[in-house]
Amino acid sequence: GAGVSQSPSNKVTEKGKDVELRCDPISGHTALYWYRQSLGQGLEFLIYFQGNSAPDKSGLPSDRFSAERTGGSVSTLTIQRTQQEDSAVYLCASSLRGDYNSPLHFGNGTRLTVT
Amino acid sequence: GNSVTQMEGPVTLSEEAFLTINCTYTATGYPSLFWYVQYPGEGLQLLLKATKADDKGSNKGFEATYRKETTSFHLEKGSVQVSDSAVYFCALRPYSTLTFGKGTMLLVSP
Q: Which pLDDT score, from 0 to 100, does residue B76 have?
């Protein structure tokens, strides 16, 4: 079946511009996660949505980062006033449930380059 | 807090060699432990997992045993193939979110 879909696959933007990254999770998955992958930093947790609960935003690096999940499905990660240090691959994952027995399925990511 | 430490790479091996990638963790409670793999140009895939102490996860010839006494989850394979070349991530999951190590690149030459 269809996996986690992310768009765009690549995004080049100028410093100071806003960007929106989209994630379509696997249908029926209640949990959705955003991670950031950058050289030397590995995979950093950003934000987690579970059903209708308030999201866990504890990993967002600054108030320039925000995310929404509409209708319990599609999610958008927004970065305002992008900086060069925001350049990274942004990964989205979903899982059937939010418990530790429910494996995460990752998308192929959006590679963001801030010039 | 929760953290994962894994050996730095790249690990370079010849085909059919034995592989070990070390992973140790710090966590509160009793997390589940995972190895994920990222092949070139592809997304992260779950390789194997273990949910409690002394469990052994296995898949595609890879194995890892959850060692609570040494807080470790080392990845092993008896005979690597060129197609195993990838980046391997150790991760722990105490509740809902995964905490990853920085990844270890494996390069296998024919």
A: 98
